[in-house]
Amino acid sequence: MAKLYVNPKLQKGHLNPELQGHFSEHLGRCIYEGLYVGENSNIPNTNGMRSDVIAALKEMQIPVLRWPGGCFADEYHWKDGIGPKETRKKMINTHWGGVVEDNSFGTHEFMELCRQLGCKNYINGNVGSGTVQEMSEWVEYMTFDGVSPMADLRAKNGHEESWKIDYFGVGNENWGCGGNMTPEHYGNLYRQFQTYVRNYKADAPIYKIACGANVADYFWTKGVLETTHKHAPAHLHGFMNGLSLHYYTHPGGWENKGSATEFDEEEYYKTLNKTLFMDTLIKNHGAIMDEFDPEKKIGMIVDEWGTWYDVEPGTNPGFLYQQNTMRDALVAGINLNIFNKHCDRVKMANIAQMVNVLQAVILTEGEKMILTPTYHVFNMYKYHQDAELLDSCIETEEIGMGEWKVPNLHESVSMGKDGKIHVTINNLSVTESYDIDAVFTETVIKSVEATILTNDMHAHNTFENPDAVHPEKFEGARIEGNSVKFTMPPCSVMHLALEV
Ligand code: AHR
Known about the structure:
Elements: E1 2-14, E2 21-23, E3 45-46, E4 49-50, H1 51-59, E5 64-67, E6 91-93, E7 99-101, H2 107-117, E8 120-125, H3 132-143, H4 149-156, E9 167-170, H5 183-195, E10 207-214, H6 218-229, E11 242-249, H7 265-292, E12 299-307, H8 326-341, E13 346-352, E14 362-365, E15 368-371, H9 373-381, E16 388-394, E17 398-401, E18 404-407, E19 409-415, E20 421-427, E21 434-440, E22 447-454, E23 472-474, E24 478-480, E25 483-488, E26 492-499
Parallel strand pairs: 1-21, 2-5, 2-13, 5-8, 8-9, 9-10, 10-11, 11-12, 12-13
Antiparallel strand pairs: 1-16, 3-4, 6-7, 14-15, 16-19, 17-18, 19-20, 20-26, 21-25, 22-23, 22-26, 24-25
Helix pairs in contact: 3-4, 5-6, 6-7, 7-8, 8-9
């Protein structure tokens, strides 16, 4: 019997809804087809946005959406994506499949998408091939209310009222596709560019995000922070509100990532083992951030994470389209638990990517749409949004195969806005079920409701069988005094909601 200890009296920090954020790039069929089909499509839509996809994302309570990239961001020139669609410039999407980008989805469409979703926006600006003026004018175009060339242009394009920018990224992966810069060079550019990301709305300052490291590139984190903090007034915290981190789980390494659906037990454990490295990364990058920002004013923004496999056979290699199995459900559950546990430093995380790309929550094919196992995990975890993390720990044993060891169980617990205690727990074993005794210190438990997602590690939804993997009500949780006892089947993700 594994014990889960929860102390509801000890709240450890606030869980920003943005810890369950998403990312959508002009890549493959994420924006075009996946989200935006245009007003004249036969696929039901509102102002061009697919109604089925919007409804599913709203159900999941999507808190924030990042756009337009990714690598695409540092090649994106926002003025190409405004004004009458027939006159918008066409360009080649050099990063992603060499297809024609007709710019029919631009700033107005993105803001309309976020309006329909009821989520915050996170816009990523162009440092790699853009100018300070271009970035500054984009911010002016979106947020300035008075008389100005960009505010006038926005009104001319049909949107008199300004928008609010919630999050703004100053460049993406500038150590790589965003300009191959050194940390010092980027750090100086960051200082310069962010100066012109003006806060035109005194009551809604823009949360500015500097480009952080890839995986374990601690040299980058240190170099950027040294540069941005040098001779800078202490209260400006290196001129940033957030610093990003990117970490993808490639089970077979960058060169041979492996199949999304065909893998053996060893590769399953390898994937989960590599996913757990997120915890180490957050601790290590966090320790460097602590040197410059001991009060943790700067948020760590994990704005790209998820599994990255070989593309589905027969699909465009530049489109990064992959299936999504129960293995991905576990990857999602583990990562979301890790972000919760590090909520003192991690303020936002964005899975890559929302629809039809990498570890997507939704896949589409023409007018059809399926929800992936990862979607169901997000939907089960949504009760953590805006909740307070509770002190918890679970007894685990080491399982796995060969060198790929993982703990058998993984959890996080919060006190929700609804006054209920929410437990999310994963059984990582492919073969074993575990009895769990969840003990809640000095708590009177009035009721418990549980939902479970469980299946074979390879199980996934297809357009022919869209509901093969779906969550079910779990009837096996029993209250005994101040504890809840239940058995978790292999390869499963569970959510328990306790009325106390
Ligand atoms: O998400 C796909 C790509 O991965 C992004 O464009 C880039 O930022 C990262 O390398």
